[in-house]
Amino acid sequence: MRTRSQRNPSTSLGTANTKSHSARADSLPSVEWDRADVDHMEFDVSTSTYYVFLRWPNGDVSEHSREEAYAKCPQQMLRFYIRHIKLV
């Protein structure tokens, strides 16, 4: 997995296509967090922080802290981990 600092902005999802629903979602009472699906996770080496990218039903992708994703959509996080677990 490539980190944000290693990513080439011209060939990746980048922040131009990524919208942060976090501030907007908190202000709207009707956001249905259970409708989002975990697209992928990234680890930022410089800040030692995980980020979760959620894909919404309308196709938007938003970036959230791991803690926020755990709090607001725990079932989706669990499904993401189950899909990616490898037993050795």
Give your account of this protein's structure:
The structure is a single chain. The radius of gyration is 13 Å and the shape is globular. With 88 residues, the protein is an alpha+beta fold. The chain is built from three helices and three strands, in the order αβββαα. Helix content is 28%, strand content 23%. Mean pLDDT is 79; it is low at 5-16. The protein has a single domain (21-84), classed as OB fold (Dihydrolipoamide Acetyltransferase, E2P), CATH 2.40.50. The chain has helices spanning 21-27, 66-72, 74-84, and strands spanning 37-44, 49-55, 61-65.
List its traits.
3 helices, 88 residues, OB fold (Dihydrolipoamide Acetyltransferase, E2P), single chain
Question: Which range does the strand content fall in?
Answer: 15-25%
Order of helices and strands: HEEEHH
Identify the overall geometry: globular
Rg from Cα:
13 Å
CATH architecture: Beta Barrel
Largest sheet: 3 strands, antiparallel
The domain count comes to 1
Give the N-to-C terminal Cα separation.
19 Å
Highest-level CATH class: Mainly Beta
Structural class: alpha+beta
Strand order of the largest sheet: 1-2-3
If you consult CATH, what is the topology? Answer: OB fold (Dihydrolipoamide Acetyltransferase, E2P)
Q: What fraction, in percent, of the residue positions are helical?
A: 25-40%
Q: List unreliable stretches of 5+ residues.
A: 5-16
What number is the mean pLDDT?
79
